[in-house]
Amino acid sequence: MQAARKDRKQAIVYVRDIAAGYLEPYEFGGPNKLGGKALIKPVNVPVNQYGNLPRKKLAQLKAKGNVFIGKVKTKAGTVDGVWQRIPPTRKQPGHLKLLLRFADAHQVKQHLGYRDRAARIISANFNAVFGKALARAMATAR
Q1: Number of domains within the chain
Q2: pTM (2 decimals)?
Q3: Range of the structural domain that residue 92 is part of
Q4: Residue-wise over 26-43: b if at least 16 C-beta within 10 A, else e?
Q5: Residues 98, 77: one domain?
Q6: Quick one: 43 and 22 in the same domain?
Q7: Distance (Å, rounded) from C-alpha 6 to C-alpha 4?
Q8: 97 and 39 in a common domain
Q9: What pLDDT sits at residue 41?
Q10: Average pLDDT of 106-135?
Q11: CA distances, 33 to each of 1, 100, 106, 107, 121 (Å)
Q12: pLDDT one-digit tens code per residue, 69-78
């Protein structure tokens, strides 16, 4: 944001290019933008309050001896991800547990609506806020 001043009577509100690239699919729809070749989708791993994988979680998982990264053939097809080897117990045989899945970009449904929301807020509040700002500017003018 660039605020207006007495010598420049124009304010600018913008989204940085890198953020706009990530937000665009969530505003207009289409495939989500991936930082690399694959998207990490948590399956059996706790996520943070935003639904994302915590920063060092992948490194923590890779450091464990019973966890590996690779493709595994399942009944549903080949799944690429982070797997945990579960040792056998008396009640069940040993098996693999999918922790994180590597997937391609998926279609995002339009749901943010931040442009429409911004237009509604501006139209509802512009006159009152502008009036106060103009009165203050006129009061402090030299």
Answers
A1: 2
A2: 0.54
A3: 34-104
A4: bbeeeeeeeeeeeebebe
A5: yes
A6: no
A7: 7
A8: yes
A9: 76
A10: 86
A11: 24, 18, 9, 10, 28
A12: 999 998 988 9
